[in-house]
Specification:
This protein is an alpha/beta fold. The chain has 2 domains: about 120 residues, Rossmann fold; about 100 residues, Winged helix-like DNA-binding domain superfamily/Winged helix DNA-binding domain (Arc Repressor Mutant, subunit A). It is about 40% helix and about 20% strand. The chain contains 8 helices and 11 strands. The strands form 3 sheets. A 5-stranded parallel sheet has the order 2-1-3-4-5, with helices on both faces. Strand 7 and strand 8 form a beta hairpin. The chain is elongated, with a radius of gyration of 18 Å.
């Protein structure tokens, strides 16, 4: 899942970005309001965290711009302003949640998971397909009652597939949401990780393959 952090405190950005990557999210960053709006115009984010006090354009302008382009993208405000009227302004302005600084990283990620659940109302707390299950809160994948040990990137890939069952996902979509827009590594990274994931999901010889290749188009997760 691709998250945009809009924040001008570079030390905080470094901590949040590192922690989110460890939690298997792909992360993009904007350090001021104008940069944020440019990135919102160019990219399709799954969630945005937004500071309200920004250089060049404040958080309210960014939030208004985002809501005009993508009304349903979850937005979590991170702000040092803790007065009731500030929280009310942020939520009434279009944000989905408001977290005051300083905060615990565990609460930060819990609120992100809650926003993803809220934005995907059809998704249960535990994602399932056949005898395969994935718990986003614990990052535990199971098949036939057996735990599957995944790397952070394999987990992110599986979660992206399981949040979009029976949908054709192109290589570009996967790169954008599982890696990030600045990825400049191996050109066959998606194919490589799909191969890794298929192998790990095969917990028994008669297990059907959930990930289907659509030649020239992408991949579909389906029974």
């Amino acid at each position: 899942m691709q998250i945009l952090i809009v924040e001008d405190e570079k030390k905080l950005v470094s901590v949040l970005k590192r922690g989110l990557i460890e939690e298997s999210y792909a992360v993009d960053v904007a350090y001021d309001g104008l940069e944020a709006m440019e990135k919102i115009d160019t990219n399709d984010y799954d969630l945005v965290t937004l500071d309200m006090m920004l250089p060049r354009a404040d958080g309210r302008e960014v939030l208004s711009h985002l809501r005009q382009k993508t009304p349903h993208t979850p937005v979590l405000i991170l702000s040092a302003k803790d007065a009731v009227e500030d929280r009310v302004l942020g939520l009434d302005g279009g944000a989905d949640d408001y977290l005051t600084k300083p905060f615990a990283f565990s609460e930060f990620t819990a609120r992100i998971r809650a926003l993803f659940r809220r934005s995907n109302k059809s998704d249960p707390t535990v994602l399932t397909m056949g005898n395969l299950s994935l718990d986003p809160s614990t990052h535990i994948a199971m098949r036939r009652g057996k735990r599957i040990n995944l790397t952070s990137r394999e987990y992110a890939l599986l979660e992206f597939f399981m949040r979009h069952p029976n949908a054709l996902l192109t290589k570009t979509q996967i790169l954008e949401h599982v890696w990030d827009y600045n990825y400049d590594g191996l050109s066959n990274i998606v194919e490589t990780y799909v191969k890794y994931l298929r192998k790990k999901l095969q917990t028994a010889k008669d297990d059907p393959d959930f990930i289907h290749t659509m030649r020239g188009s992408g991949y579909i997760l389906r029974e």
